[in-house]
Amino acid sequence: MRVGATIFNQNYADWDRYEAEERGESVPSRPATTDRQIFAEELDIARIADDAGFDSVWTIEHHFTPYTMVTNPLQYLTYVAGITSSVDLGTMVTVLPWHNPVRVAEDVNMLDTFLGPGREVICGVGRGLGRREYQGLGIDQNEARGRFDESLLVLRTLLATGTCTFDGEHFQVNDVRLRPQPDRDLSANLWCAGGTSETVEIIARHDVRPLIIPTTSLDLALQNARRYVQLRADSGVTTPVATKLSLWTYVAETEEAAREGAERYMVEYADSALRHYELRNDHLGDIKGYEAYAAQSRALAKDASPFLRGFYGSHPWGTPEQVIARATELAETFGTNELMFVFRYGGMPIEAARRSMRLFAREVLPALQAIDPAPLSVTSLAA
Predict the structure, then answer these.
(1) Which domain holds residue 211?
(2) For residue 236, what are the contacts with CB-CB under 8 A and spacing of at least 6?
């Protein structure tokens, strides 16, 4: 099994200042820890991954808040390509409704050109959820599903063939031909996050494989993965499908030390997700294609504690042996061919992330790379 490391670039300590500024209160114009310092620090995650034998380095796309500050993951990964020598590079995710899909295809193709033989670019895509982001980018969130569906078709065609003609409601593409000319079909490198039943339906219909980022819960993520397999089977496609699964981790020599770090920083991460996505507000129920979030938002408004402790309660943390056991269990349950671990999140100091990641690299990484989970299949759903 492949194992990757994910870079988030969170400035968690800035949330109180940011939200006060958003409310119009008088606050300092800059955070105590600068965003640029965090960027410089987290490049160490890529360097450690490359030196320690990880298979891949991933990053994510978000805008405008301290949640994560990578506004263009393919641009970021192009820099990472220059400071590494062996890892593949992946987006987790590029949010398609915020982009012209032709430009996304061009950026993937150009990064693939830079990487050359022996290294891959993995294009993970998604639909996006944050209201602040849609508003700041000037895109009507009610159009998200339509934009996503059309973008996925254009992107997949361009990655497969290097050419595309498409006439849709949101995008019109007339005989576009990528340059530099692709040297192979890249469509197998396209993966998609599906956080709602609507998105799962789209990616199952287009037979794009699932990239699982459990920002709500592992249980819901597993339901969506199984629904994907069932939808493909209903359409006559019964071949097994592997997933890629993102997990949060914290590793220490003793369970007590690991618990202290995992509990604090995983709860802080969950708090940052609540704040960024405004999950305790009721606005998502009024946005076309996001109605499924309404019930969850109502529950979170009443009691957010299950969500806040969900990462700590379900993701792999502990001694190396404990992390191996839990990560293996999750990889087998999700039919995973690659686990992407988040090593720094919340207000975790970079020194703590480095210690956890280096211990993981020495004692966890070889064990996980040696396993080979079976992909998900219709048969496994009945088990």
Answers:
(1) 2-382
(2) none
